[in-house]
Amino acid sequence: MNRRMKLSAIAVFSTLTVASAVPAVALENEFHGMFRLRGITSNFDDGGGGSQFSADATKPGSLNKKNPGSNAFVEQRARILYTAKVDDELKLITHFEIDSRWGDNSYNSNNTTRNNGGAIGADQVNLETKNVYVDYSPTSTINTKLGLQFWNLGYKGIILNDDQAGLVVNAKVGDGSLGFAYFRLDDALSGGSFIANGTGSPTTTGGTGATSVVNTTPGNRTRDFLTLGGKYSITKDFKVGADYVLLYSDILRNSQGRTNIHMLGANAEYVMGPATIDGFVVYQTGQLGRSGVAGNSQRVSAFAANLGGKVKTGPGIARANFLYISGDDNPNSGARNDFQTIMERGATTNAHGFTASEMVLMLDNKYNHTAAQAVVKDLNNNAQGLIGGFLGYDLTIDKFFVYSNLGFGAVAEDNGFGPAPHKSNFLGTEINAEIGYKLKPNMSVSFVGAYMLLGDYFKGQAVDVAGADPENPYTARVMVNLAF
Amino acid sequence: MKKIAVVVMTAFMISATMPALAQMSKEEKDQCLLASKSCLTEVDSIQKRIKKIQTEIRKGKKVYSAEELKKLQDKLKEAGEILQTLESGGSN
Questions:
Q1: Measured between CB atoms, does B1 come within 8 Å of chain A?
Q2: Residue A345 DSSP label
Q3: Which of chain A's residues have a Cβ under 8 Å away from the Cβ of B46?
Q4: Which of A105, A184, A321, B45 could be cross-linked to A484 through a Cys-Cys bond (beta carbons 3.0 to 4.6 Å apart)?
């Protein structure tokens, strides 16, 4: 090897060495997560989901029982969020969850995988995938999210607040922003499906959409969600927004008409010194597929409205929220005036909620795990709708915190749902409080107590003792929360 | 001479591309091993990141340009969304 060749070899070796020592892409790995444990004793929570208002006398912990008995159990949830960050503009986000109730099952012995694995031996296949999506910003003003993702339209979660697959595009324009989102909610080849609200009718069992899916070709019969909207800052403290939403479904077109529900929403937020006022109005129009009625569909004309606010008062923050969800006194007629809510594929799992109420028993709570009962689980509330008023006060003193809430609820329209005529529309009054201590900046332990004084709606409605009043529900929980 | 220069350059380039693995002196205690503090690979918790971004935003236009402040606001929003996603309840 002559001198030139030797030098060339050294140069090539140097290049290779440098190239192999520098990674192709400076990938940043980011992990976040949470762990929450809840020890619960209650005459209401039974470890499952759904509404506890049941005509089934055998249902344990049922809301409408004179002698509901009590349950005591411990459940835990962990979530791991991993982000592979190529740079500020491009990320892959994945989110996983593991739930179990202490002692529930092990080794997949009950042939159920998720929400299990807390029994002796453990070794359960129970890892759930919540999110897998790419977050990409092609320019500094445009952001896109593509894949299975958590998404909330706004409107405090009453329209859609869940994990689903689709595309979200947001663009900043001057003092405002424009948004587009499309999600495929359902393209199942078998099983049941709930197009909009879970039951829909007080007189038919199963109700809206409770028939089997017949879909032999993927993409042939689907449930889709599409929205276009914008937000605009009139001043630094005054923001307004408007959205159009289309909820479409032809999943059950073998047995009923297509669902085409158009929603028009407007929202606003105004900051006045220490106070913030916000609210929204959503109007629905269109068609709801429904078997068993003339034309196999019903016309929809319904609305929801909210007014909320918070203000720094004394050492803490006072909160208030008012919610109106329209109901229908005769949902079997040609027109539906009850607000159509979006459910998952089952009648007990809602894809929406109103956790701003901070109710523990009356409505779905933000801390719910597998045990996720509520008096009004689906805001459609069996086509009865809801009128709710919620007041709260949050106090934080050093590492201690006290959150207290008071809520009132009534059905908007009484359509005779349930085992007996109702003496009133009033569902009841809930009082709850959480008292906690921050052990570390990202870890706390707290005690939650909630009690609901049932209203005359439930008078004489007990299903286990004829004509008796059901016992008022309560729950007492100890909770350990870690998020990092 | 050229040969020596190439060899020296090669050695320099290799050394420059190697990560600095041992930065502390022998007298210092390894707080990373002892108390999981000051580790080179330490990542902020989501709460710590939110606090850090808020601190930087408070420095305002004295330190950051309007565009940089907007970027920090976006990062604050993103961190808040991560925390919300982690803590939000699920129906099941």
A1: no
A2: S
A3: 32, 442, 483-484
A4: B45
